[in-house]
Amino acid sequence: MMVATTERTRTIPRTTPRPKTREADRGDEFEYFLDRDARREDTNGFHLLLLGQTFMKPRMTVPYAAGALSMVLEMDDTTATERASFANEHGMSCLGNWQRDEALNNAKQLSARDLSVRVVPGVKGKQDWQGSPANANPDGLPTSV
């Protein structure tokens, strides 16, 4: 037989203060966390990634995701379907490269349509497939024939 208690339990007050977190320290909800001393600049642009976890959601399909990509990013249907299929099969797909503010705005719009996306800083590369910032001045780079 159980006896009901008449005494209320109380919560023990916290002895250590909680660390104060500034919005700038945490980054945006679509960016991975930043170190306190890290800076993100717009010089290299930012990649918008479609994550494979998008397709773990109930009723999420490649055609629906492709339609959202077409509408938000103004991507043609064929490319949007390819990017959505790639993310579904391989875990993520790079949707493109934008300035930080535009990439975050696109991420918010895609997230509102139930797509899981992340924004990561871009890097300068030396290959054709790595985008134009690296190839703007290709002095010293070998040319393929």
From TrEMBL:
Residues 1-26, 123-145 are annotated as: Disordered. This is Uncharacterized protein.
